[in-house]
Amino acid sequence: MTEIESNHPRAESLRVREKLAEGFEKGLVVPEGLSAHGRGEAFDYILGEETSNLARKAIETATATLLEAENPVISVNGNTAALVPGGVVEFAGEVGAKIEVNLFHESPEREKLIAEHLISHGASEVLGVEEEFAARIPEIHSDRRKVDERGIKAADVVLVPLEDGDRTEALKELGKTVIAIDLNPMSRTAQAADITIVDNIVRAFPLMISKARELSENSSKELDKLIENFDNQANLSETLKFMLSRLEKLSIR
């Protein structure tokens, strides 16, 4: 990795880019994943590259939902594996979730590389790489229709960082609760999900881990109350207002 001075104004952003570049060189990330990151980074600039209170509320609700789930699953693609492999593994352990590789640009080789990468960061098991357990979701028309019958197929709650809209909508149609992490509050993914965390995953996962430890002390009744009091559409609307106010402030400097 290229050495990045800690006092560089874009230090964290440059570190994230370096991680993705390394992931690309290792075969975890595809070229389309690099362009997707650039699109998300543009929205992060508008957010001020900080986690808003609105995102923190969504993180709290998402974590409570996963703690209350019977069969939670975290879906992992190449970008997620490259950026937060340890965070995914640690958070999965905190909420009792399974980890499953699911790719838009599918290849058995890349699935195995991602699974091995997650295992090297502490995962005891990674689903989605064994053909004998493969199932298909007919509502999805991309390669992401392939899921693991022990994981996403059987899940009641699915966390989908960096997701595509088609699969989010299809998972919802199958009766699953979908939690998205998406920097674009206007995307189909963000709009279709039950809970949308509008934040960068490199900031979101550490906060989710801390929140899981905090909420693990709460009763089921307390967690249910947190979940019931959350309105995703209202949260997204307030997020757009927050982003608009940021742009207005920047425009009059």
List the helices and strands and how they pair.
Blueprint: H1 11-26, H2 31-47, H3 53-68, E1 72-76, H4 78-83, H5 85-95, E2 98-101, H6 108-120, E3 134-136, E4 146-148, E5 157-161, H7 165-173, E6 177-181, H8 188-192, E7 195-197, H9 201-215, H10 220-228, H11 232-251
Parallel strand pairs: 1-2, 1-5, 5-6, 6-7
Antiparallel strand pairs: 3-4
InterPro entries: PPS/PS (IPR002855), PPS/PS_sf (IPR038138)
GO molecular function: acid-amino acid ligase activity; ATP binding
EC number: 6.3.2.36
> What's the count of strands?
7
State the secondary-structure class: alpha/beta
Strand line-up of the largest beta sheet = 2-1-5-6-7
Q: How much helix is in the residues?
A: 40-55%
Q: Quick one: biggest sheet? A: 5 strands, parallel
Q: What's the tally of helices?
A: 11
CATH class descriptor name: Alpha Beta
What separation lies between the terminal Cα atoms? 36 Å
Strand content: 5-15%
**Rg on CA atoms, Å:** 18 Å
Q: Low-confidence stretches at least 5 residues in length (pLDDT < 50)?
A: none
Q: Quickly count the domains.
A: 1
State mean pLDDT (0 to 100 scale). 88
Q: The CATH topology is what? A: Rossmann fold
**CATH superfamily (homologous) name:** Phosphopantoate/pantothenate synthetase
Question: Which second-level CATH architecture applies?
Answer: 3-Layer(aba) Sandwich
Q: What is the string of helix and strand elements?
A: HHHEHHEHEEEHEHEHHH
Instruction: Name the shape in a single word.
Output: globular
